[in-house]
Each structure stands twice: as C-alpha cells, then as structure tokens.
Amino acid sequence: MKVAVIGGIAAGLSAASRVKKENKNAEVVVFEKRGDLSYGACGMPYNLTMENSPPESLYALDYQTITQKRGIDYRLYTQVNEILPEKNKLKVYDFNNNEGYDYHYDYLVCATGAIYNRLDFEGFDERVFYFKNLNHLRNLKNFLYKNKPKKACLVGAGYINLELAENLVNLGIDVTIIEKSDRLLPFLPVEQQQFALSHLESKGVKVFLNTDIISKQGNLFNTSKGTFECDFVVVAIGVKPNTEIFHGSGITLGIKNAVKVNHNLQTNIENIFAAGDCAEHYVPLLKDWTYMPLGTTANKMGRISGYNIANINNMETFYGINQSAAFRIFDISVATTGMNEKQLSDYRFNYKKTEISIPDRPEYIGGDTQKICLLYDSKTGQIYGAQITGHGTVAKRIDILSTAIHAGMTVEDFSHTDLTYAPPFANVWDSLLVAANVALKNL
Question: What is the pLDDT averaged over residues 223-238?
C-alpha cells in the first residue's frame, strides 16, 4: 500500500505515523514544501523571549525519529503542484534537486494546513512581519535582537497578537494593538470582553478598536484613529484554508473553501482523505460543519485519517470538536468551549445564560477574579457552552465543561459532580459548581 501525504506538520505527520503504526509494510511518503519538521506553532510567541533557544526547539520530533524509527519517507523542500485523482498521481517538484517527478499513490491525505491573510497598504514592504510559520518566527526574532526596537504596532487582536503583546512587553517594547472590529474577542460575553481589555491596558498595552489602516510611511503608521510611531508592525488577522492546489482536481471544497469531508474524513473521492487546517470541522452540538483551525484538532484528524486508511473496512468516526480553546493575556487566561451566544442565536437555540464573577480560590491565599458564563438549554438545562476569563486555573476548568458537553450533561447533572477542593486550587464550592447552582435557579 502506497500512501502519500501532502503537508508534514501537525495533521500530516500524525496521519503518516498512524498509517505506519497500523501497517508497518505500508510505503508512506510525506511531501513538505518548507524545510521545517512538524512543530508546535503555539509556542512561537513565547520562543521570542528565549534569545538562545532556536525556533527548531519547537520541533515535535527530529528527522531521524521520523524517518528511521517511524519509517516515514519525509521529503522536505518538496512541493506537490498538481493532483490527478483519476490516475492516482501527484506532480511533485523537488527544490533541492531542481527537478520534477510523478508519484503514484493508493491513498492520499491532504494536510496542506492554512495560510495567513495578508494586507496590502502603502508602505507595507518594510519592517512588516507576519507570524504563521517558523520562518516568520526567525525573521521577527532576528530583527528584535539585532535592532532592539522600542515600539510595535500589532494589527489584529486575535490569539496570536494578544500572546505576542505579552512577550513583546516582556522584552521592553511599547505595544499598540490596532483592531478593525469594534469589540475585543467577540466570542466572549461583553463583561468578559471589557475585563480582558482593561487587563491589557493595565499592562501598558494601548488598544484601538474600530480602527482602519490607511498607510505606513517609514516609522509612522497611519490609521483612522490617528498616526502612531512604531519601529515595526506584526500583522495577524486570521487564516484561511490552504486549498488552492485542490481547485480543478475534482476534490469538493466547502466552508471558506476548506476541503469537504465526511465523518470518516474522506473527501468526495473515496481514496483521498483530508485533515487539519485545510479541512472542514464538525461540531456535534450544531450538527453542522464549520471552520475552526487549531493544532489539537489537526493532530486528532490526522491520527484518525491515518487509522482509516490502514483499516479501510473498519473505519473510525471523527467525533468532531467542541470548539474548545484557551490562551493567556499576561497573568489572566481566556477560554471557551461549546457554543457562544452568537452561534446559539444564529442557529435559533432556546437558551439561557448564567454569568458570575467569583474569586478562583479563597482570597486569603491569593484568589482573584474569575468570570464565568454558562450557556444551557432553557428547558432541559443541557450545557451548550461556556466562556471563562480571569485568574487561576481557567483552561482546566473549561476542559471540565468541555467534558460535560461531550457527555451531554445538564446543569443539574453537573451540579452533582465531585470536584476537588483545597485552598490553593479552589473554594469549597468550586466556581463551576457555583455557576451550575445559579443556573438551576433559572430553569
């Protein structure tokens, strides 16, 4: 069996590894157009502050482990230019040897990931950085330690730039964030948005919402809210599926031009699978598909697509995602799971919400504000989603609620869960149980 994988980062390497684990005799070839091995991109903002830690420290595995221990033919600097499904053939170009060749496969995994959205304004050809891959990390890191800049403008107020803001401030850089939307983190309830914004500003980060870019002239960054002086700009305004190669191949694309897959992660062509940031993602609560690219999802999808190729007559179903995510803003955390209010409204769910603000643990041991929003069915109390912003163990608490959603629990079910208590970790009544008990009063 010959398996080709396009893309060798999260989903691609997971798929290749699983095929080889299930079928040691399979020939598995991974085509990766860049020179980097599979890496943890979420560590990139933090690597910036580690002057002596190279970007390569973010690699998940070394080349010898991938090729010798796992037996994968991992071809770096190799790009697939065309897919010919009717012939089970790929047209490939090897940049190292400057030659093209054909590769014939029995099964194909599309794991091409996502590409970053770019901006094209006057003056955006100098000292403007993007931050999606390790080359971007190298470029920005080299610039920071060589030039010792003092002022930065970050375009976009999503996860990446909010994490970058913390790390740039820790390097002694004055940070201004420019955001086109009129709200910060719109998936959060309004009170949590304001809490996060106030916390950013308390750390010296200047945030300008509802602001349009006009141009950049040298160190001057011109916007609808005025002109800012900056030594460099980082643009992080979201991503889109990297699926241009699939146009004309016969592979069906769906939401935001992501590859459409079924619950076994097959495309419309039965021997071609897709996984990770280039594919659609199923949300069981919505009973619908969406696009929410995250590293954890990519690895899970890659693992299952690889298993299914090796076990084509006994395939696994991919559960989907609860849309769980977490990140840090200095010394508070933001986390979400399940559906947010906008989704519940858009899909016309009958729901109620409970919002509480409570110390994450006793104040005498350093407890501080934790804001919780719990969303649930207005009749049955089934938990639909939650958002938490604040101090303490935010991410792990959202994981508990994600588990509850996965199990189909109601707020009453959840109110009986046996959560741990010790003053360093929680109050006698954990903040999640407090939220559940308040919600019960609303039913």
Answer: 96
Q: How far apart are CA 199 and CA 165, in angstroms?
A: 12
> Comparing C-alpha atoms, which of 369, 349, 351, 347 is closest to residue 359?
369
3-state SS string over the chain? CEEEEECCCHHHHHHHHHHHHHCCCCEEEEECCCCCCCECHHHHHHHCCCCCCCHHHHECCCHHHHHHHCCCEEECCEEEEEEEHHHCEEEEEECCCCEEEEEECCEEEECCCEEECCCCCECCCCCEEECCCHHHHHHHHHHHHHHCCCEEEEECCCHHHHHHHHHHHHCCCEEEEECCCCCCCCCCCHHHHHHHHHHHHHCCCEEECCCCEEEEECCEEEECCEEEECCEEEECCCEEECCHHHCCCCCCECHHHCECCCCCCECCCCCEEECHHHECEEECCCCEEECCCCHHHHHHHHHHHHHHHHCCCCCCCCCCCCCCEEEEECCEEEEEEECCHHHHHHCCCCEEEEEEEEECCCHHHCCCEEEEEEEEECCCCEEEEEEEEECCCHHHHHHHHHHHHHCCCEHHHHHCCCCCCCCCCCCCCCHHHHHHHHHHHHC
- Residue 66 has which token pair? 């991938």
Check: CB of residue 376 under 8 Å from CB of residue 386: no
Residue 123 has pLDDT above 90, yes or no: no
255 backbone dihedrals φ, ψ, rounded to 5°: -60, 125
Measured CA to CA, the distance from residue 139 to residue 142 in angstroms comes to 5
- Token pair listed for 329: 């803003």
**CA-closest candidate to residue 52, choices 145, 139, 134, 130:** 145
CA dihedral (183, 185, 186, 191) positive or negative: negative
CA distance 437 to 9: 43
At 57-106, the pLDDT tens digits run: 999 999 999 999 999 999 999 999 999 999 999 999 999 999 999 999 99
Tell me the pairing of strands 351-359 and 369-377.
antiparallel
Distance in angstroms (rounded) separating the CA atoms of residues 362 and 421: 11
pTM above 0.70, yes or no: yes
The answer to whether 127 touches 233, Cβ cutoff 8 Å, is yes
Check if the beta carbon of residue 345 is closer than 8 Å to that of residue 337.
Answer: no
Q: Is the dihedral of CA 45, 46, 47, 52 positive or negative?
A: positive
pLDDT, tens digit, 9 for 90 and up, residues 134-167? 999 999 999 999 999 999 999 999 999 999 999 9
Is 371:388 a contact under the CB 8 Å cutoff?
A: yes
Number of Cβ atoms within 10 Å of the Cβ of 110 = 32
